[in-house]
Design brief:
With about 150 residues, the chain is mainly alpha-helical. The chain has a single domain, classed as Ferritin, core subunit, four-helix bundle (Ferritin, Up-down Bundle), CATH 1.20.1260.10. Helix content is about 75%, strand content about 0%. It is built from four helices and no strands. The chain is elongated, with a radius of gyration of 16 Å. The chain starts with a helix and ends with a helix. The relative contact order is 0.18. Bound molecules: fe (ii) ion (2 copies). One fe (ii) ion binds next to helix 2 and helix 4.
């Protein structure tokens, strides 16, 4: 059964919410972490903020094109507790694992949008595929960091 426009807008709104929440937590962790091992990860997170913000902008444009409206701060739902700054501000590994979980969830959600839009909305599908490629790149990048930072 083909997806309705409302279902597609709802899926895009969820993606938009996820991207904005990721920006909030990447920003927080890029500021929160400290110590010799943290510097590189802080820089990587700070750089990724722009990329995730760009995703939110692209998704927002598509939501508008489909006739939806963009949620303000009180309409967003923040649930990403696993990516909040760790109590131990030198616990870089916990942050990397949180990033990997966020990227994994994003990847799964973009795959679901690709399936949802099949045969129905190829512009949204194309956008989801483009963003999916970015998120897979992020996952690979942070999997590499995890390998290195997990060494004793
Ligand atoms: Fe993203
Ligand atoms: Fe990402």
């Amino acid at each position: 059964m083909a997806a309705t426009k409302e279902q597609i807008i709802a899926a895009l709104l969820q993606a938009y919410n996820m991207e904005v929440e990721t920006v909030v937590n990447y920003l927080a962790n890029s500021l929160h972490l400290e110590g010799v091992r943290a510097d590189f990860i802080k820089q990587a997170l700070a750089a990724d903020i722009q990329g995730e913000l760009g995703h939110a902008q692209q998704l927002g444009n598509r939501i508008k094109q489909l006739g939806g409206s963009i949620p303000g701060s009180t309409q967003l739902r923040m649930t990403q507790s696993y990516l909040e700054p760790p109590q131990d501000s030198t616990d870089v590994v916990q942050v990397i694992k949180g990033v990997l979980k966020a990227e994994h969830e994003a990847i799964e959600h973009y795959k679901s949008i690709i399936r949802l839009t099949e045969g129905e909305d190829y512009v949204t599908q194309d956008l989801a595929i483009t963003i999916l490629a970015d998120e897979e790149g992020h996952r690979q990048q942070f999997e590499g960091y995890l390998k290195e930072y997990s060494k004793k």
